[in-house]
Amino acid sequence: MVFKPAKWPRKLRSAEWFGGTSRDHIYHRSWMKNQGLPDDLFDGRPVIGICNTWSQLTPCNAHLRDLAERVKHGIYEAGGFPVEFPVFSTGESTLRPTAMMFRNLASMDVEEAIRGTPLDGVVLLVGCDKTTPSLLMGAASVDLPAIVVTGGPMLNGWFQGERVGSGTHLWKFSEAIKAGEMTQEDFLEAEVAMSRSPGTCNTMGTASSMASMTEILGMALSGNAAIPAVDSRRRVMAHLSGRRIVQMVKDDLKPSDIMTREAFENAIRTNGAIGGSTNAVIHLLAIAGRVGVDITLDDWDRLGRDIPTIVNLMPSGEYLMEEFFYAGGLPVVIRQLAEAGLLHKDTLTVSGETIWDQVKNATNWNEDVIRTADNALTDQGGIAVLKGNLAPKGAVLKPSAASPHLLQHRGRAVVFEDIDDYKARINDEDLDIDETCIMVMKNCGPKGYPGLSEVGNMGLPPKILKKGITDMVRISDARMSGTAYGTVVLHTSPEAAAGGPLAVVRDGDMIELDVPARKLRLEISDSELEQRLATWTPTHDVPESGYARLFHDHVQGADTGADFDFLIGCRGSGVPKDSH
Is beta strand 391-397 parallel, antiparallel or unpaired with respect to 384-388? Predict the structure, then answer.
């Protein structure tokens, strides 16, 4: 892509607040100067916002204050004026009912904070997985120059000589407890080993997947995704990003110039190559909607179907993000895909260079961590998009994290009406279930939970685990953590709470899953399905007021990104009128 930089110098957006001698200009400058700011910071130089999701309630982002200071150094060096501000921080590990419920709210916070303040460009400081899409969505809606700096993954966990992946081993150890294979004392001892440094999940969970998606989209500097949070090079990345955003403002290089359809196609294919999270589907669909790029679930299947998974990281493989960084990180993956003719090489990045220019000299230092295509972890990675009478608008499954023998399976449905029903019955030794059954959970989608929670990777019944069985087919309208694994069908659309076919599945119904054929079918006649749907009534609670009610009334389905209907396709910065 050929990008023509804007003329410089020119009058910037921030001059509407600071660039004159009227009462209003003096009003804006005077209040800013109570922080001890000198006159020359208001001389027309780029004003750069540092949009910070730091929060002690978002553990993945609790170190971002330090990175913000590094960003400021870079902005000052490049002749800009940095101003840091907080936005709503959505921490998945602490926020109930789920951080996903508040992703759209956080995006609105970001959008209005940028639009309503005297900024010419923004640095987006992100970490925990929902903070990355929410800030990208908000910034895309305003479309001022923006660059992303992620907080980076935590160091490898180690417990009793074994690598411990954050999240992944939580599920593994929890199942081992139920199977009688691990003591409670060992589980408690492993707790600190799972999270032994600042940073996001050290697996290829959603946080690392979205950091990778940001890099391949071109919205972060090359190499940003994999640098560990505590590595000094993470601070260097923040510093350099601070320098770069100033030039981006001068050039008027905006998200809409970078996040093109070709960039999203690159991201879909790269997600398959890294064994990325199913959550990336929802987030990329939402981000694309904000920039007006028409990406659908069908594109995910078409573009990602034949992409081999070459990154050998948990939950699909055996290593962690620390080793991924040492092996060369995402630039190596991008180079291999590009050399295989699987990427658009000329997509633009925040550096001003094409994606290919940034990675053409990348070196793979460990071919067991980042494999070649002929030694792939999974020949067909990507995200499988399943359709059929049980999921007319689609459902997704991650083949690289599934059990190969279950990718074609027919089984009897064991139905849980919601997460509470599941929790009440799953440990009952009298539950009528065996390993050939298919576990089905309803009312956990965007409207049903509410918020589309990460409960889709339902733990297996103890009596199954005690047989040594570690995986079964599970189907729901929920999400699952990017750190999770298993033959899990997710995001079934339309969701049960919206009257989708999932709502009328009954105990004993036979279900057919055929991943190679991309089919998910409830084995009842069309007339029987129509009759059940005609007599169905909602069972989930509808919030009476507040943000929860707004969310319920306006959230779209998982198949289109679960954004709000009134936020899709709206873009433009504008300058709000001065009320003084």
Answer: antiparallel
Q: Which two tokens stand for residue 228?
A: 């560990």
Residues in a beta bridge with 479 = 454
d(CA 147, CA 135): 10
| Residue of 221, 86, 206 lying closest to 153 (CA atoms) | 206
Beta carbons of 472 and 460 less than 8 angstroms apart: yes
Q: Identify the CA nearest to 228 among candidates 314, 316, 327.
A: 327
Distance of alpha carbon 568 from alpha carbon 365, whole angstroms: 42
d(CA 280, CA 498): 23
pLDDT digits (tens, 9 = 90+) for 140-162: 999 999 999 999 999 999 999 99
**Radius of gyration for the chain, computed over Cα atoms and rounded to the nearest angstrom:** 24
* Secondary structure class of 444 (helix, strand, coil): coil
The token pair that represents 109 in the structure block: 């916070």
Q: Cβ(75)–Cβ(245) under 8 Å?
A: yes
146 in helix, strand or coil? strand
What is the mean predicted confidence (pLDDT) over 270-298? Answer: 96
Task: Count other Cβ atoms within 10 Å, centred on residue 523.
Answer: 13
Q: What is the pLDDT of residue 575?
A: 76
Helix (H) or strand (E) holding 173: helix 168-178
pLDDT digits (tens, 9 = 90+) for 380-409: 888 999 999 999 999 999 998 999 999 999
CA end-to-end span of the chain: 43
Structure tokens at 403: 């059990």
Of 458, 463, 464, the C-alpha closest to 478 is: 458
Q: How far is CA 5 from the centre of its chain?
A: 31
| Cβ–Cβ under 8 Å, residues 6 and 251 | yes
Give per-residue pLDDT as tens, 208-242: 999 999 999 999 999 999 999 999 999 999 999 99
Whether 511 has a pLDDT exceeding 70, the answer reads yes
Distance between CA atoms of residues 156 and 193, nearest Å: 9
H or E element in which residue 285 lies? helix 279-291
| Residue (of 352, 348, 356, 287) closest to 132 by Cα position | 287
